[in-house]
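no rush on this but wanted to send it before i forget. theres a chain ive been looking at and ive put its sequence and its fold in token form underneath. please have a look and point out which stretches look like helix strand or loop to you. thanks a lot i owe you, the record is right below:
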Amino acid sequence: MPKVSKILVPIDFSPHSEMALAYAVDLAKSLGSRVHLVHVYPVTAYAAPPLMPGPVVFAQFRDESQRVFGELMTRVKREYSADLEGTLKEGVPHVEILRCASDLGVDMIVMGTHGHTGIEHLLLGSVAERVVRGAKVPVLTVPLRG
């Protein structure tokens, strides 16, 4: 089995991504790997005329994302006694996740998933599906257990 020294965990603050994070931390501890979190905030998705927000709204969205991400990093380090790093990105989630995986040279991606059905899946797809299709490394998708 190839060595897994760095695991990327995309986090969107949902229960799905929190479950994936727990898996990734446990996996990293057993493999002696490092965990790197990435959160992508899709500002551009909300910037369609005529409702395009101004620079102040973008700055507030970015600042709030930074605040919540920072709190998550602090909590995860405390709860899991995990040594981890993090990256905050703006853009299209699957594109930035794949770019981050490449830039960091990760060996695996662990991410939460939730199913889209019917027309929503046909039109939107899912971030997890797009990451699985585009990744150059193994992707472990973790469903939310009820």
